[in-house]
Amino acid sequence: MIYSMLNRCLVLLFVSTAILFASGLHFEHNFDKAMQKAQNQNKEVMMMYSATWCPECNYVKEVVFKDKRVIKYINKHFVLLGLDIQKDKLPKGFNYMGIPTFFFINKDKKQTGEIVGGDKAGKFLKELKDLK
User: Which end of the chain is flanked by fewer CB atoms within 10 Å, N or C?
Assistant: First the structure.
């Protein structure tokens, strides 16, 4: 009986963890792979240029990108590409003034919009929607 209860608890824990990870955001880290995935899914690429030492970048990743409304909207409309200024060069034709910078890229690899900086989830979501 104790094994049965333990097994149920483990299954519940596993399912809960899987749901949490499945409903989050997934970052691609290769421009060409993100573009291909976006084309296959009929979406645009949302490229985040950031740094691990940037407090505003970390706020977006740890707070804004955990908001269910933001997750749902991004997953529906974009393939998320994450590039780090210390490790990755921006693709040709893209420039930035500060981080985080979010570039929105269509299937022709042309920039269709940009958001510089981070904000609270509600305001960030409004900015995303205003781009569409």
Answer: N
What confidence tens digit (pLDDT) does each residue in 21-41 have?
A: 445 999 999 999 999 999 999
Q: Residue 73 carries which side chain, given as an amino acid letter?
A: Y
Alpha-carbon distance of 84 to 101, in angstroms, equals 11
Provide the number of structural domains found in the chain. 1
Task: Give the residue from 38, 40, 54 showing the smallest Cα distance to 117.
Answer: 54
Task: Please say whether the beta carbons of 82 and 28 come within 8 A.
Answer: yes
Q: What distance in Å separates the CA atoms of residue 130 and residue 76, rounded to the nearest whole number?
A: 15
Position 49 scores a pLDDT of 98
Q: Which pTM does this prediction carry?
A: 0.81
Structure tokens at 25: 């955001």
